[in-house]
Automatic annotation (TrEMBL):
Keywords: Glycosyltransferase, Transferase. PANTHER family: GLYCOSYLTRANSFERASE. The keyword NADP does not apply. This is Glycosyltransferase. GO terms for molecular function: glycosyltransferase activity. Gene3D superfamilies: Glycogen Phosphorylase B. Its EC number is 2.4.-.-.
Length: 330
């Protein structure tokens, strides 16, 4: 198949898109990524197969999204609301139009999610959200986010992690609650070190005592964040990677994280927006080594079931099905 992913800048959920693209390319498909040229203050790492050598994925960078920059193919996947606006302008030569939905927050307006195109949802929770918007269940396929376990793994030999916490900063990361909880935690544990990471310039709301890493390639994100920090406070995608690398996880109950994580088995889950509960969970994990060790072990077991090769096979099957179906008029 010839598959094209159309991405905004910054590329929301870049590592998931890169993972899908690279795995499909490794399975012999012709994969292209069309993305907007970087704005000032943004750096997008080069495309590489997560440490496994150069990728065959073709990357097209453009100043403006238009049908002319989308290559001929079999499937075109929009990855957010802005790129979905391109789909009605595409023709049959571009292939079957569809959407990849990684989070509700990155879409904003509902009309784009209601487009009459098939959709890949990365969690059962998102499939439920789409159903609530009136999207027929027949139009949604759940393909769980996979992990390249050869890359996302604990360091060897094991390193002391101390009172270190990592947190992603982005439009759908719940950063405001996380930062307030970290402020309260630091008042109790002044030795705590926090690393935030994201795609653009350092956010203005970040306190000066938080280290910020910008647009790191995957292997550096693993080395400098996931393999280094004792506790991770993040989204479903980042939490899964942190589990695989040996961090204990604090997450939000009812979010996409709940699709694979379970409270007190492999993580501590708190209610949405619960600053005090988040701070209490962080303090517990910092001070209770036995609890942290038990949750890390549970995280390893959970991550072991999330092989990216399995996700690639499921995505491949879904996209094949799209090419065999009759496309509706947009």
């Amino acid at each position: 198949m010839r598959v094209t992913f159309v991405c905004p800048t910054p590329v929301v959920g870049a590592q998931v898109i890169q993972g899908y693209a690279d795995e499909l390319a490794a399975r012999g498909h012709e994969i292209s990524v069309v993305r907007l040229r970087e704005r000032a203050g943004l750096r997008v790492p080069g495309w590489s197969r997560r440490g496994r050598g150069q990728s065959s994925v073709r990357v097209v960078t453009t100043a403006r999204l238009s049908p002319d920059v989308v290559p001929d193919g079999d499937v075109v996947l929009a990855t957010d609301a802005s790129t979905s606006k391109l789909l009605p302008a595409l023709s049959g030569r571009h292939g079957r139009a569809g959407q990849l939905v990684q989070s509700r927050e990155q879409w904003g307006a509902d009309p784009e999610l209601r487009l009459a195109v098939p959709k890949i949802a990365t969690s059962e929770r998102l499939a439920g959200v789409l159903s609530g918007l009136g999207v027929p269940s027949s139009a949604v396929t759940v393909v769980s986010q996979g992990l390249n376990l050869a890359v996302f793994r604990p360091p060897h030999p094991a390193l002391p992690r101390g009172h270190r916490v990592s947190v992603p900063v982005g439009p759908d990361s719940g950063a405001a609650t996380a930062l307030e909880a970290l402020e309260r935690t630091r008042a109790l544990l002044p030795t705590m070190e926090v690393t935030a990471f994201g795609a653009g310039r350092r956010p203005e709301q970040l306190p000066s005592w938080i280290r910020y890493l910008r647009s790191l390639p995957t292997h550096e994100l693993v080395r400098q964040v996931y393999q280094r920090d004792a506790v991770h406070l993040g989204t479903a995608a980042s939490a899964a990677r942190a589990m695989a690398c040996g961090s204990a996880v604090v997450g939000v109950r009812g979010s996409a994280l709940s699709d694979f994580a379970e409270h007190d088995r492999d993580s501590l889950l708190v209610e949405p927006g619960d600053v005090n509960g988040t701070a209490e969970a962080l303090v517990r994990l910092m001070l209770d080594r036995e609890l942290r060790t038990r949750l890390v072990a549970g995280g390893f077991r959970t991550a072991a079931t999330m092989d990216s090769a399995d996700s690639a096979v499921a995505l491949e099957k879904a996209l094949h099905g799209w090419t065999e179906a009759v496309a509706p008029q947009l």
